Each structure stands twice: as structure tokens, then as C-alpha cells.
């Protein structure tokens, strides 16, 4: 997309912040389970399905070094136990970076678990898990990942549920050098996903289907030499400088005190050698 085309969409004077509402036909490649992933509604929607033979998945054609990505998802309804719908950003290689949302299915009427993780240079173990304050299978809800040089914020319908700050001064590695693609897949995780693997996928209910729409990306444009050409440059209102303001912090705390069901920063039993250094700041 050239700058002039983008300007039509965002009506700002400098072509500094790229926002586009995606078209799945142009923006993603189906990389798994070809016939089980279906692009619909002129590229505005996609469905992924899973049966006993395989699941399915897609990834963005573009790679991003920082970005604000959002997508609306409607998760597998009914008995979704054992299924995992993933939606994440990841770079490649042995020292990869990754920012994860995973939705762990459950028996009809039992709650989904939203599983999050941040992996830097191949090292993760930073899980936080949440319940949602709504049934994610009835309607579409917006799940976003803001990733800028200062912070990573996971949000649900605009409410932040988790923040992972750049704490390089405290020697915590932060993803800031490797570009990432957006990935999504629907797969069978019944060896661990639901009640730790105790509840298996009921294949008589297959195929399972998850629905996606309104893929939106704001990102930076980089030249071939690696210099950023434009990256929401003009300042304070840009996603590039976005952080958590006072009001968002209240909502984040509301989520964390009412809906967080697991926090690696509170798991001294698992991390006998000591909690991660970023955990100190989080209390
Ligand atoms: C910083 O982290 C690296 C990698 O984990 C480690 O090798 C190094 O010793 C740490 N430096 C300090 C000052 O803690
Ligand atoms: C499924 O529901 C059970 C019972 O409410 C709950 O313990 C569990 O955490 C839920 N989620 C998963 C992914 O197992
Ligand atoms: C982009 O380049 C400008 C000017 O060189 C610099 O100030 C800014 O920090 C860079 N942004 C990123 C995300 O690298």
C-alpha cells in the first residue's frame, strides 16, 4: 500500500501512521489445513476449523517490527474442550520472540481460559491466564496486541488485561530487534489444554470452527537498510507512544484482581530458583 492510498483512509497530513483494515485475501497465507481455512465476505472474514485429521492456520504476509494488531474473534461454541485457538505474533529462528494469546476450550457451560505468554530470545515461562467477563462464543470480541518500544499490552474489547514493559535497565530482555508475523491456528491440544489434559476432545462434535473478522494493523514502515521510514512519528497520540494511562490502569487492575487465574509472578513453587526479575515491578 502506498502512502497516498493510506492517506485516503486515515486523513492525516503526514503519512506517518499506517492503519489499515485488512483483507484476508491479500494479507494472509493459509499455511495449514488448506481446505479447513476459509476466507469469506470478500476477504473481511476467515474461519478456521479442526477435525480429527487436522486443524488449520494462517499467518500474515507482512512482518512487523512494532505494531498494534487487532482482530475480532468468535470462539468455538458448545463443547470445545481440548481445542486451542491461538492468535499470536512471532519471529523465526532459535532465538525467536513471541507474544501469545491462546484460548483454551472447555465443556459446554464451562469457561474458556485465556492463556498469554511473552517469549524473548527463545525463553518464555511468562504465562498469565484469565477468565473472560463474557461468553466468547456468542459474539465477536476484539483482541489486540500493542507492541511498541516501551511496552506490550494485551487487550480485550479495549480493556487491557496484561502489560509487559520494556525493563531492559533491569536486564529483562525485550522484543525489539526481530520482526514478527501475525499467526493464528485452531488445533487439538487435548493432552494439556482442558483441566490440564483431563478432558479430551469429543470428536463426535467435529468439525470445530473459530471465526475471525476485522483484522487491523498499525505498524512501521522500514526501508531495506533497516532504518524506519515512518512509524507513527508525530508523537503523543500515536500507538508508538501508547502506554497505560490512569483509567486503563484501573481497568487492568480490575481484570487482574477479578479474572486472573494464573500468574507466573506468583508461582514461587514452580520457580524455586527465584521469580523472574520483571516480577518485582509488577506488585
Ligand atoms: C543479564 O542477563 C543475561 C542473560 O540472562 C545474563 O547472562 C547476565 O549475567 C545478566 N547481567 C546482569 C548484570 O545481571
Ligand atoms: C474448564 O472448566 C473448569 C470447571 O469450571 C475449570 O476448572 C477449568 O479451568 C476450565 N478451563 C480449562 C481450559 O480447563
Ligand atoms: C524511528 O526513527 C526516528 C528518527 O531516526 C527515531 O527517533 C525513532 O526512535 C525510530 N523509531 C523506532 C521505533 O525505531
TrEMBL record:
Glycosylation site list: 106
Pfam (any one): XET_C
Endpoints of the signal sequence: 1-21
Keywords: Apoplast, Cell wall, Cell wall biogenesis/degradation, Disulfide bond, Glycoprotein, Glycosidase, Hydrolase, Secreted, Signal, Transferase
UniProt-annotated location(s): Secreted, Cell wall; Secreted, Extracellular space, Apoplast
UniProt cross-references to SUPFAM superfamilies, sorted A to Z: Concanavalin A-like lectins/glucanases
EC annotation from Swiss-Prot or TrEMBL: 2.4.1.207
Family: Belongs to the glycosyl hydrolase 16 family.
Keyword Cell wall biogenesis/degradation (UniProt): yes
Iron-sulfur in keyword set: no
Catalytic residue positions: 98 (nucleophile), 102 (proton donor)
One Gene Ontology biological process: cell wall organization
Protein name: Xyloglucan endotransglucosylase/hydrolase
Start and end residues of each GH16 domain: 3-212
TM annotation in the entry: none
Superkingdom of origin: Eukaryota
PTM annotation, UniProt: Contains at least one intrachain disulfide bond essential for its enzymatic activity.
Primary localization: secreted
GO cellular component, one term: apoplast
Function noted in UniProt: Catalyzes xyloglucan endohydrolysis (XEH) and/or endotransglycosylation (XET). Cleaves and religates xyloglucan polymers, an essential constituent of the primary cell wall, and thereby participates in cell wall construction of growing tissues.
GO molecular function ontology, one term from the record: hydrolase activity, hydrolyzing O-glycosyl compounds
Amino acid at each position: 500500500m502506498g502512502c497516498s492510498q493510506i492517506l485516503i483512509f486515515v486523513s492525516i497530513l503526514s503519512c506517518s501512521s499506517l492503519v489499515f483494515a485488512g483483507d484476508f485475501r491479500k494479507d494472509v497465507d493459509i499455511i495449514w489445513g488448506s481446505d479447513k481455512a476459509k476466507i469469506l465476505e470478500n476477504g473481511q472474514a476467515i474461519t478456521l476449523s479442526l477435525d480429527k485429521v487436522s486443524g488449520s492456520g494462517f499467518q500474515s504476509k507482512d512482518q512487523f517490527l512494532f505494531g498494534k494488531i487487532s482482530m475480532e474473534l468468535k470462539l468455538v461454541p458448545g463443547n470445545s474442550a481440548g481445542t486451542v485457538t491461538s492468535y499470536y505474533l512471532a519471529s523465526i529462528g532459535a532465538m525467536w520472540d513471541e507474544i501469545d494469546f491462546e484460548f483454551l476450550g472447555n465443556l459446554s457451560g464451562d469457561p474458556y481460559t485465556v492463556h498469554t505468554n511473552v517469549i524473548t530470545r527463545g525463553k518464555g515461562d511468562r504465562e498469565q491466564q484469565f477468565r473472560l467477563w463474557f461468553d466468547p462464543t456468542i459474539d465477536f470480541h476484539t483482541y489486540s496486541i500493542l507492541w511498541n518500544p516501551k511496552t506490550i499490552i494485551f487487550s480485550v474489547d479495549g480493556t487491557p488485561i496484561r502489560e509487559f514493559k520494556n525493563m531492559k535497565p533491569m536486564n529483562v530482555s525485550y522484543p525489539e530487534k526481530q520482526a514478527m508475523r501475525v499467526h493464528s491456528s485452531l488445533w487439538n491440544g487435548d493432552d494439556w489444554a482442558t483441566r490440564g489434559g483431563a478432558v479430551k476432545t469429543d470428536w463426535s462434535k467435529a468439525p470445530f470452527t473459530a471465526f475471525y473478522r476485522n483484522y487491523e494493523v498499525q505498524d512501521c514502515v522500514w526501508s531495506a537498510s533497516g532504518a524506519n521510514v515512518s512509524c507513527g512519528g508525530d508523537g503523543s497520540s500515536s500507538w508508538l507512544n501508547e502506554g497505560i494511562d490512569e483509567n486503563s490502569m484501573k481497568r487492568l487492575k480490575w481484570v487482574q484482581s477479578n479474572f486472573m487465574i494464573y500468574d507466573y509472578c506468583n508461582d514461587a513453587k514452580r520457580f524455586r530458583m527465584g521469580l523472574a526479575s520483571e516480577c518485582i515491578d509488577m506488585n
